Amino acid sequence: MRNRCVGWAAWLALGLAGTLGCSTPEYREPDLDVEAPQLFVEIELPFVEVWRSTLEQFGTTDEEATTGRMTFSFGSIEEAAKYVDCGWIERGDFKGPFIDYLRQEGEAQFRGRIDLRVGKIRRGLTRVSIHARYTLSASSKGVDRFTPQTYSWAFASGGSATVRTRRWMTRGKWVSRTCRPTYAAEREALHKLPKP
After folding, report:
1. HEC letters along 73-140
2. What pLDDT score was predicted for residue 154?
3. Which of 146, 175, 187 shows the shortest CA–CA distance to 87?
4. In 10 A of CB 167, how many CB atoms?
């Protein structure tokens, strides 16, 4: 009888462990109602002065100086959560941004790009506009035990991207994951612009 009870307890413990091991992660979507900041400024300075100061601030020698346009990259996968909000997840010992979960459990890459334009409105008044583009990719290899795949999110300032992915480590079900900008990159760029 005692051996039977011990056997039953062991079986129950294994069953619970299996159930907990396949538990569904707790996931919270990003807030999609966040409004984008104003992505342009009008500066009461001549175009040439604004453009030269902008080149110095962003540390570039862009060959398109006469056109008033420049493009530069920012961010890395290690700091992607600063620039992109893909929601929040709690899974096992992990609790934090979903984008960090992707980095920890799979192979993830992030690339951000800022397009900056400087244009003359009239004499002594210049307009600077900023537009960011974001690309995030994550491979399920190592975390998706069914069919390894790579998922990609691409979006720009004011937008977002939703991708259907396998629910990692939960029997291969499909779920939607949305990513959007935090606007930290745009604000940082606007902060560097010259002040009249």
Report:
1. EECCHHHHHHHEECCEEEECCEEEEHHHHHHHHCEEEEEEEEEEEEEEEECCEEEEEEEEEEEEEEEC
2. 97
3. 175
4. 15
Tokens representing residue 186 in the block: 């745009």
pTM of the predicted model as reported, rounded to 2 decimal places: 0.78
At 103, list the tokens.
């980095």
Q: What is the Cα–Cα distance from 112 to 83, expressed in whole angstroms?
A: 8
Instruction: Give the helix/strand (H/E) hosting 50.
Output: helix 47-57
Distance, CA of 92 to CA of 101 (rounded, Å): 11
Q: How far apart are CA 179 and CA 84, in angstroms?
A: 7
pLDDT in tens, 186-196: 999 999 998 87
> How is the chain split into domains, by residue range?
27-192
